[in-house]
Amino acid sequence: MRLPIVHLVTDRALMPDLAAHLDGLLCGVSPGRVAVQLREKSLGGGALAALGAVLAEVCHAHRQLLLVNGRLDVALACGADGVHLPASAVDPGAARRLLGPGALIGVSCHSLDDVERARAGGASYATFGPVWATPSKAGLGTPLGLERLREASRLGLPLVALGGVEPGVAPLAFAAGASGVAAIRAWLTGPSPAAAVRALLAAAP
User: Fold this and answer.
1) Which of 34, 122, 168, 182 makes an SS bond possible with 93, Cβ 3.0 to 4.6 Å?
2) Domain spanning 6-203 has what CATH number?
C-alpha cells in the first residue's frame, strides 16, 4: 500500500461535524495521499465504531484512507484501512495478522528506541514527535526538534512528523527526512482548512 503523506488527526472538540468537514476538504485531492486518523479517546467502542463507519464512507468516497487510533476492534468493525498504535501497545505484527496483510499499521514514537522497535515489529510507518511545541502534546515535554527527526529518519522506517506541524514548517520536516506530516489544528481550525491541507500536500518533495 502506498503510504499517505498527510495524516489528519481528528478532534471533535475543535470540529464537531467531522464528516461534513472532511467531505469538503478532500474534494480534488489525489487518491491515497491523505489518511484520516480517528482519535477520539472520550468515545466508547460503539460510538467510536459508528463514527468510524461514517468517516470511512467519506474517506473511501474520495479514495483516501481511514485509520483508527489504538482500537483494533473498532478498526475491524468500521472497515478502516488500518490502525495507529501507541508505542507500548500490541506488536505491529500481531495487529497486521488480525487486520490482514494489506492493512496500514502505524506506531506513535517519541524516541529513536521507539522507532527501532516499531521497525523491528513490522510497522508500516511511525509518527515521530512532537517535533515542534503544540498544545495537544504538551505532556510529552520538550519538543524533539528537526535534528532528532533527521536521526530517526535514517533508521529505515517511514516517519510522519507530528507536533506543531503547519504549512509554513512542513517543508522543513520533509527536508529532515520525514515521509509525511500529521496535523490536528491545521485542518480543523483557521479560515481555510482545505487550503492548509493542500499546502501540506504541496510541501512534499
Assistant:
1) 122
2) 3.20.20.70
